[in-house]
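Friendly challenge for the regulars: who can give me the structure tokens for this chain first? No prize, just bragging rights.
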Amino acid sequence: MGSRELGLVLTQQILGVDDLHYGLWDEGLELKMTNLGIAQQRYTDNMIAAMPAPKPGPVKVLDIGCGTGHVLGQLLSRGYLADGLVPAASLAKLVRKQQAKFPDIKSRFFECRFEDLPFNELEHQYDVCLFSESFQYISMEASFDLLQKILKPGGIVVICDFFKTEHHGDGGPGDGSFGGGHAMADFYRKVKESKFELVRDEDITKRVSPNLQLVNDLLHNTIKPVGLTLDKYLSDNYPKISWLIKKMLRKKFDRMNYKYFEGHRNKETFERYKTYHLMVLKLKD
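First reply, four minutes later:
Bragging rights claimed.
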């Protein structure tokens, strides 16, 4: 299991949620952990609303990087013909469980990277390609050319994800504490060079950034005390092993401390270095 996959699975287990994406914190929803599921459902509803409705005709969707399959399950429940893709074996099991809830709907699953899809077999099959916090993991050099192979003429790409702002790399407090994301300027340049037209671009950064306050509270009030307790136990009972572990993993521990436990994981830092957008790109006829 890779570190990214491990992080996703642990996040799901620790928070006790079905979704792995951020939530939308709009006016009237109190910022507390018990409301996270509501905020995440708002995110999902907002994203699905950006797609064409599955009536009167069918709409076929490929959910690329579908995580636990929760959004895929919602698409199937709302009448979409939806397939999923995820390369991680642990997540693949959860996706298949979601698909099993809809035995009467043919839903394919691809346990592979996006770049390894059978593109010739899937040529012009999809009305929608969906990226929910997964576009950041796809090479922009290849993504637009590959997407146009599997989309029908006039098909759309829905991206709900964060990107790096122009402040990335400025050396300010918290710079580098948030990984992931393509540079926003590079993305816009690639779109102009592609056969896609950007027909919707909604900045939802301030609607998702409150999630970071919840994460920061969890890190400092739950995760950090547990870590300190474990460290003390190992130091008191297995001092040599504890010393060896710290020596071998010192650089990793220092990076983790900077990213997670020095107070940088907050909404203000996120808003400086990341910009979160819901975008729709249409393949030109």
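The two ends are 41 Å apart (CA to CA). DSSP finds eleven helices and seven strands in the chain. Your move, everyone else.
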